[in-house]
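On clarity, I found the account of how folds are encoded harder to follow than it need be. What matters is that the chain and its backbone geometry are given together, residue for residue. The format is easy to grasp once an entry is in front of the reader. For illustration, here is how one protein appears when written out as sequence plus structure tokens.
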Amino acid sequence: MDLSGFKKPRLSVSDYLVLGSLGLVDQGEMDWKVLAIEVNEAKEKQIKNLADFTRLYPGTVEEVREWFRNYKIPEGKGVNKFTADGAILSLEETLRVIHECSMQYRALKEGNELPGDKDHGFWLGNEGKSE
């Protein structure tokens, strides 16, 4: 999720500073939400991590979490659940999620077996407990 305040042209490509991630369980399927800010904005505002971002924009991460929790209710679908009781994963954990999801996507695209334990991968949504 782009937390940047700068407007960018539609379909533009930007570099981002990854801040963390939120594990969303959307209708029983894992949907990782990576929280990031455009790198030039981060430099300009001296944001180096999630703590810097939350200091400059208090309450924003909580608003994002609540939006993801409730955004499908108007469609008649239930409240979304989160892994790790809705905690934002650290940068290290987020990079591990990104790497594992990338490896699993490549394996699926190539028609190969999923790497690692198929019952507990990030791709399958079994990492951590949902609330």
Summary: Helices lie at 39-44, 50-56, 60-70, 91-109.
